[in-house]
Amino acid sequence: MLKQLVSIAPFLRLPALAAASILIISGCSKDPGDGTPASAAAATTNGNRPDPASAGEKGAADGPGGRRAASIILAASDVKTVERGSIEAGVAISGNLKAIEESVVRARLEGDLVGVYAREGDHVKEGQLLAHFEDSEQESNRTSAIADREAAQSDLETAKWNAEQSEQLFKAGAIAERDLRTAQQTLAAARARLAAAEARVRATTSLLTDTRALAPTTGVVAKRNVENGEHVARGADMFTVVRADVLELAAAVPARQASEIRVGQKVHFAAGGRDLDGRVARISPTIDPTNRSITVYAQVPNAGGELKGNAFATGRIVSRTVDGAIVIPAQALRQAQGSDRPFVYRLDASDALERAPVSVGIVDESQAIAEITDGLKPGDRIIVGNVGALGAGMKVTIAGGGEGPRSSSPDGGSPHPPTGGGSAGGPAKGRQPPPAP
Q: Is residue 342 classed as helix, strand or coil in its secondary structure?
């Protein structure tokens, strides 16, 4: 048995030797891992240099910095030169513009209407007759009251004469004191009857006046709730007259901004497609505890009646105005992720983009402009349009002319190297330049 094992041992070693040979051969022919064949790697190791033409071809494709600078073409409206201007700081408000005065004409007595003289939209003046009740009863009562007053006036004159005569007779001893006192009491009663008659005249006159519905103010009839011949109850609404030559907006302003608002400050309004200027008329003295705001009342003139009551308006209370500030469009401001300070893209002397961190002062959202307190100066050119992704170092060309990238060739051609040719400074023939980053 031992002799048999010894005779088989050489044959068992043959597969192991064959496997080791295969591994050695594959290792010698393996790619070194950088895309260079194994033979080329061996040649380099032995001190052989790569082909100079191939090296020059690769360097031309990468450019001086290893990669060609990216470029972008912008419209002239996407680039703006920084200038000085004026900007306003203020508090935004909004709400409905209501008529400064709205009066409801109500029936002051019950009766039948014999005339209605105004309709919706009519312009009326204060004291103008709007409707008339049937007034025959009131007119009769007033006539009777006037007659009673005349009779009381006559009785008073008679009682006064009798009292004067009785006083003279009493002094002469012709009558007793009792007769004098009787005459004086008759005079006092006559005066009381005259006063009562005059009061009745005033009451009946007032009732007669109540049969005429008059305009309480100069304005426009907004509602008419009655018709001619209708029986109207006492206290019923008949007309609504509004005074719309001045409109007023009641706006809630956060309490933290209350200190910036003063009576008389200018207010810019936008309503009904029109821009208007008004002023702050009144400010509530207390803060609403439910929403921590104060109510500001702003008025705007509307003499021509172009604006209608209850029109929605947005406005801005101007708290202060800054003249000579560096002002840029608000859309030029950008915010980098992870940074609290905004920046703008500015064109440098070589017409390449650079990031310019800025400090922002007042922002006027209504005009879409912002004040720059630091980081820019007049004459700087900045990117204001929404032109997509930008990056520092990117070259800019302005479509249609203007100040764009300066050409590197004498004939004013493209500043980028050609895609063909075998010049030492450009890519070799048949090779394409690498894509722009």
A: coil
**CA nearest to 203, candidates 109, 129, 285, 293:** 109
d(CA 304, CA 300): 12
Phi, psi of 314 (to 5 degrees): -115, 145
As a whole number of angstroms, the distance between CA 369 and CA 346 comes to 17
SS3 2: helix
Calpha distance 298→104 (Å, rounded): 24
* Reported pTM: 0.55
The architecture of the domain spanning 91-98+242-321 is Beta Barrel (2.40)
Domain boundaries, the chain: 2-61, 71-85+323-398, 91-98+242-321, 135-210
Per the document, the length of the chain is 437
CA-CA distance, 4 to 397, in Å (whole number)?
A: 90
Write down the pLDDT at residue 69.
60
Q: Which CATH number fits domain 135-210: 3.40.91, 1.20.120, 3.30.70, 1.10.287?
A: 1.10.287
Q: Which residue has the higher pLDDT, 413 or 308?
A: 308
The DSSP H or E segment spanning 88 is strand 83-106
Query: Which residue type, as a one-letter code, is found at position 134?
Result: E
Q: Can you name the CATH fold of 71-85+323-398?
A: 2.40.420
User: Which contacts of 57-65 are long-range, i.e. CB under 8 A and separated by 24 or more positions?
Assistant: 57/427, 57/428, 57/431, 60/417, 60/424, 60/425, 60/426, 60/427, 60/428, 60/431, 61/427, 61/431, 61/433, 61/434, 62/434, 63/417, 63/433
For residues 297 and 280, the answer to whether their CB atoms sit within 8 Å is: yes
286-305 residues labelled b (16+ CB within 10 A) or e (exposed) = eeeeeeebbbbebbbebeee
Question: Which H helix or E strand runs over 244?
Answer: strand 237-254
pLDDT digits (tens, 9 = 90+) for 296-310: 999 999 888 888 888
Encoded tokens for 106: 């109500």
d(CA 146, CA 152) in angstroms, rounded, equals: 10
CA dihedral 142, 145, 151, 152 (to 10 degrees): -140
